[in-house]
Amino acid sequence: MKPMWKAHAxxxxxxxxxxxxxxxxxxxxxxxxxxxxxxxxxxxxAILLFGLFWTFKPEIPKKEDLLRFVLCAITGVAVNQIMFFxxxxxxxxxxxxxxxxxxxxxxxxxxxxxxxEKITWTKSxxxxxxxxxxxxxxxxxxxxxxxxxxxxxxxxxxxxxxxxSVYLVLVxxxxxxxxxxxxxxxxxxxxxxxxxxFGWQEFSLVDWPAIPTIAIWILFFIxxxxxxxxxxxxxxxxxxxxxxxxxxxxxxxPFLAAAIAIGIGKDKLDGAMILSALLVFTGVYLVxxxxxxxxxxxxxxxx
Length: 303
Prior knowledge:
Blueprint: H1 4-28, H2 35-54, H3 66-90, H4 93-99, H5 103-114, H6 121-139, H7 142-146, H8 150-175, H9 180-204, H10 213-238, H11 243-248, H12 252-263, H13 271-288, H14 292-302
Helix pairs in contact: 1-4, 1-10, 1-12, 2-3, 2-9, 2-10, 3-8, 3-9, 4-12, 4-13, 5-8, 6-8, 6-13, 9-10
């Protein structure tokens, strides 16, 4: 029997980390480190950690898989992290987490394009609802009053979700061929080369001695928890479950992010956020819903 419960436990742990990351990252960014500098810190730290474990049992990718590793580095590390931190720097934790719940919908679209999976009318309607829900937050007029270009930040977060969705579809084949640590190390290694030109200037300007101890611990959590451990847990789960299942756990993030952000006084809910969340959740439900025939086949396969 496949250790399905372990995969779901890994996904729960990863999304608990992600839920805390929204507010914690806002605590140190851009006050102590800029968003691009944060990416260099995250990726370089991840390479050191993944590389350390990889050296115990080195595994070299096959030539025919190198292009897929590079594409995963671009979508899962470079574009994904650049758009997330640049977006989070401009928007609010709750708005960012709601937009990211469109991830399962975007995974379905990516799978349809890349893996030629069929999209039904029900799923198409779910995609439409999800995009409308995300659009409400991205284009809402109140964002102008909030300031700091929240609308642009929301758009960046949406691009982050789109990029990560493509990564989830691309990386699963690698997970079936190589060890999890091997995939993570060889995805982050070229990813570092892509993000370095964008973030080196901000990273070099960081005044490390002036950063308070609490901020150092937050940066430690972001590197070790959000980058190393969360990526590792998601990658572990992908060995057992599909990219769509991994993406559905993003539902937890708005609730976790909202609870933390409201609890520490960094954000608050309003009507537009609630409406957007309802539309996105309904859309994701329709996208994830299996037809009766598929459900019966799934039950038979587990007997």
